[in-house]
Amino acid sequence: MIKQSFLILHGLGGSGLDHWQTWLAHELQIRNGDVFYPAFSNFDSPNKQVWLEELDTVMNTIPKNQPLTVIAHSLGCILWLHYTASQNRKLANRVILVAPPSPNIVLNAAITFYPVPLSGTNLTRTAEDTLFVHSTNDPYCSMEDAKCFKKLGLPSMIFPQSGHINTESGHGKWPWILQQCLAEDSQTVII
Q1: pLDDT (tens digit, 9 = 90+) per residue, 155-186?
Q2: What sign does the CA torsion over 16, 72, 99, 53 have?
Q3: Is 158 left (phi over 0), alpha (psi -120 to 50) or beta?
Q4: In the chain, which stretches have pLDDT less than 70?
Q5: Do 12 and 107 form a contact (C-beta atoms < 8 A)?
Q6: What is the CA radius of gyration of the chain?
């Protein structure tokens, strides 16, 4: 079995010890994955350019000879969209973008991240597979605003009544995301 790399990108405010991303990092490590889980600077009032530079530094440390899965949450999804806009090469095999905030409502604490570069071409150029994950009652992205992501023409999953898919909505241990990361066939979406 080929060793895999996993890059986990947190959002505004970080993820914390009880968040599914922290749980996921641990679960992947005990399964012998190379896990990269950077803590970005000033995560309560981030600067897009600083985060992009920090992400680029991390990307340059990830082994190029291993399949890479990127798992982003919230503002980490928007960070990934900005990063792919500046890249002209394949970066990852799989990307899972969980609970991206609305591209139509500017978060004051993250104002430098707007406008959001919405381009399916950027995503397909930089990854073999990209999956968007939304919730029907995400306070940061209504189902109406989620249509902006659906229009990119990439697969999406919608979880009913799952809030922002974070600790507050009960997502500490989240087996579904672990299954997605470990699935042999990236086209397989396990529900």
Answers
A1: 999 999 999 999 999 999 999 999 999 987 55
A2: positive
A3: beta
A4: 1, 185-191
A5: yes
A6: 15
To the nearest whole number, what is the mean pLDDT of the chain?
94
H helices of the chain, where? 20-30, 48-59, 75-85, 120-126, 143-150, 175-182
Q: Within a 10 A sphere around the Cβ of 37, how many other Cβ atoms?
A: 19
* Token pair for 96: 């899972």
- Phi-psi map region of 180: left, alpha, beta (phi>0 left; psi -120 to 50 alpha): alpha
Instruction: Check whether the bond before 100 is cis (ω within 30° of 0).
Output: no
pLDDT at 180: 96
Is 160 exposed, middle or buried (CB count within 10 Å of its CB: 0-12, 13-18, 19+)? Answer: exposed
Query: What residue has token string 């798992």?
Result: 71
| 3-state class (DSSP) for residue 79 | helix
Phi, psi (deg, nearest 5) at residue 26: -65, -45
Which pair of tokens denotes residue 55? 């992400």
Please tell me whether residue 133 adopts helix, strand or coil conformation. Answer: strand
Output the pTM of the full model.
0.94
